[in-house]
Amino acid sequence: MNIAIIGLGNIGSYLYKYLLSNKKILEKKNNCLPNVIYVSAKNKKRKRNIKISKNKWLANYLDATKLKKIDIIIELIGGAEGPAKKLVFNALKNKKHVVTANKALIAKYGDKLSKIAEENNVNLEFEAAVCGGVPVIRALKEGLIANKINRVYGIFNGTSNYILSSMDKENKNFKEVLIKAKKLGYAEKNPKSDLNGEDVASKLKILSSLCFNSFINNNIFVEGINFIDKFDIDNANNLGFKIKLLGVSEIIDNKIYQRVHPTLIKKTSYIASIDGVLNAVIVDGKPIGQNVIQGEGAGPEATTSALVSDISSILRGNIKFPFSISNNERKKLLYKEISDRSYSAYLRFDVVDKPGVLSNITNIFSKNKVSIKRLIQNPSKSKKFASIIIITHTSKDRFLNKVLNQIEKKTYIIKRPKLIRIGIN
Ligand SMILES: NC(=O)c1ccc[n+]([C@@H]2O[C@H](COP(=O)([O-])OP(=O)(O)OC[C@H]3O[C@@H](n4cnc5c(N)ncnc54)[C@H](OP(=O)(O)O)[C@@H]3O)[C@@H](O)[C@H]2O)c1
To answer: Given 61, 104, 154, 237, which residue has the most CB atoms within 10 angstroms?
Structure first.
C-alpha cells in the first residue's frame, strides 16, 4: 500500500525513518508492503534529520488527497483547525485511509469524520491520539470487544504527572519542576493545555464515546493542576494520599459523567504508583472486571508504536468503524454535570489567625450539611496566619462548592480556598 506522511516534525520524521528501516518485517507480519511514496510539511527548506529524495516531496500537501496512487494518508500536522482539518476531511472524502495522532481534531470533529469514513468504506485510525504508546483504542475496539464498559479512568497526561510526582519526590515547588520538565523535553514551551486539563479532556471525550458507544460530548468538567502547590502535596502525603490529575468517565443509571481534575488517591492504590511521564488507563467492564494498560504516553518512539499499529490494521484490510460501532448505532446518551456526583474532599483555607474564624468555618459546613471527617490547623511561624485543612465525608459536588464559595467571601480569607476531590469511588 502506498503511504503519504504529511507533517515531518517530532513524530513525522521518526515515523518516516521507522517505516523505511522496518519495511520488510512489517510486510512479513501484515502480508502487505507499507511503501512511503510521498511526504510533505510546511517548509521544504527546513533542516531535518532525515534524507528525503526530491521526487518524494509534495509541494502542496493537499495533493496527497487527490493522487490516485496514494492509499493511506498519515496526518501529523496537529491542531483541530487549519491544514490538518482540511487534509483529513478531503482525504476521507476522496476514499483515502487516514491515520492521525491528532487528539484535538478527533475530539472536535471525530463524529463528522467517522461518518465520512464509514460512508466511503475507509479507515480512520487514531490510536496515537490517546496516551501515545498505550494501545487503549485497539484494546477497546478488539481485545475488550466482549465487554460492557461502565467506567474508564486514569492518568492521560505525562507532563502533569511528571510535575506532580516530582514535586512529591524532589521536594521542589511547581515553578522549579516546570522549568526542569521543559529542560528535559517533558513539557512544551507553552504547556498550557497539559497543565489546564484540556489535553486530558480531549482524550477522555474520545475514550468515553468508544467505551459507551455514544457520540462525542462536550459536557465535561475540566480543572488543571495549576493551583496545586507543594503544601498540598505534603498535606496529602501526611494524610496517606498522592495527588494525581485524573480523567474519569463513568456511566451511572444510563447517564454519563465526564470529569478531569486533580484527585487525592490512596497511596496504596495502583494508580498512585504511576509516576513521571507514564500514562495508565483503567477500564471497568463486564465480564472482564478491571483491566489496566500502562506505558509511555508521548514522544516519537511511543507515538510511532501506536501509528504503526494503525497502519498495520489497514495493511491487513481490517476496515472497521472508527468508533467501534456504526454511526447509525451510536447513541445520544445523557451527559450530566458533575454537581450531582458525590465524593469526600480536601478543602484548604488560608486564613488570618484570630479567634472565631474556625467556628465560623465549621458553622458554614454544618449549615450546608457537609460533615467534617478530619480537621487540621497549621499556624504559620509568625502566628498571624493559619492553614485549615478539612477532609469531609461524602457530599454532593455542588454542596462542597457552595461551602467553598461562601467561605471565600469572608474577610479572614487571605488566599483563594482550594477543593481537591478524593478518590474515584
Ligand atoms: N509530540 C508528541 O509526543 C506527540 C504524542 C502524541 C501525539 N502527538 C500529535 O502528533 C501530531 C504532530 O506532533 P509533532 O510533535 O510532531 O508536531 P511538530 O513537531 O510541531 O510538527 C508539525 C509538522 O506539521 C508541519 N506543518 C505545519 N503546518 C503545515 C502546513 N500548513 N502544511 C503542511 N505541513 C504543516 C510542520 O512543518 P515544518 O516541519 O515544515 O515546520 C511540521 O513538520 C500532533 O497532532 C500532536 O498532537 C504528538
So the answer is: 154
In a domain, 68, yes or no: yes
Residues of the chain with pLDDT > 90, as a percent, come to 91
Query: How confident is the model at residue 14, as a pLDDT?
Result: 96
Verify whether residue 255 is a known catalytic residue: no
Probe residue for ligand 1, chosen from 130, 303, 308 as the CB with the greatest number of ligand atoms within 8 Å: 303
Same domain, 100 and 187: no
- What is the tally of structural domains in the chain? 3
pTM (2 decimals)? Answer: 0.95
CATH of the domain at 413: 3.30.70.260
Bridging pattern class, strands 148-155 and 255-266 = unpaired
- Rounded to 10 degrees, what is the CA torsion of 65, 70, 76, 81? 10
Instruction: Identify whether residues 102 and 153 lie together within a single domain.
Output: no
With cut-offs at 50, 70 and 90, classify the pLDDT of residue 320. Answer: confident
- Considering the candidates 115, 203, 205, 418, report the single residue annotated as catalytic: 203
Residue 180 CA, ligand 1 centroid: distance in Å: 23
- Give the pLDDT of residue 379: 81
Residue 381's domain spans which residues? 339-422
Residues at CB less than 6 angstroms from ligand 1:
6-12, 40-43, 46, 61, 76-78, 83, 101-103, 128, 132, 298-299, 303
Q: How far is the CA of 84 from the centre of ligand 1 (A)?
A: 9
Tell me how far CA of residue 167 lies from CA of 74, 225, 232, in angstroms: 37, 12, 10
Q: Are residues 271 and 392 in the same domain?
A: no
